[in-house]
C-alpha cells in the first residue's frame, strides 16, 4: 500500500503516447509531484486491446511501468481497446482521480498532438475547466535523435560461434524477438535493437548485423571473461 501524500489538494496526471518524449514527461511530472508532495498518475490510451499491441508499443509501456515504480506513481492507467475520443478519456480519468494538473507533450506524434492545437484544447478546457495544463515542448536532444534512425522493424537475435547476430526472419534458433532501428544513411544493418528480457527493455547496438555488446544480453559473460 502506498503511503499517503502530504498534499491531497493537488493531484497530477501525465498523458503519454508512444514516442521518445514519454519518459521526459513522466520525469517532469514526478519532479512537480515531488515538489508539491502530491499523488502522480500516468495515462496512456490505445484503440487496440493490450494483447494486440506490437512489440514496439509493448516495449514503451513496459518502460513506463518501470518509471512508474521508480517515481512512486500512484497508478499507471492504461485505457486499451478505447473507442471514445481522447478528450473524453482524459476528462473521465481526471474526474475519477481528482486531478488538478495535467502534463501533455507538445510534439508527440499521436492523438495527444491535437491537444496543443486551439480547437481541441478549447474542447478539453470545456470538459475539465478545473484543471491546469502544462504543455511541455519536446527535448531538443530527442528531436535531433529522431532523424537518425529509420522506422523500427521486427527482428531477431541468433547466437553463433562468434556471438550474436541479427536476422529478420524467425528461426528456431532465435534467442530474442524485438525491434531493430536502422541508422539512416547507411547500406549496412547498423543501428539499435530493442527487446524484452526478464520484463525489462534491453537495448543493444548492432554493427554490420552483429551485436557489439553481448554482455548486455548475458551479463554473466563479463564475469566468465574475467576468470
From TrEMBL:
Residues 11-129 form the UspA domain. Keywords: Kinase, Transferase. The keyword Ubl conjugation does not apply. InterPro entries: Histidine_kinase_KdpD, Rossmann-like_a/b/a_fold, UspA. Pfam families: Usp. GO terms for molecular function: kinase activity. PANTHER family: SENSOR PROTEIN KDPD. This is K+-sensing histidine kinase KdpD. It comes from Shouchella xiaoxiensis.
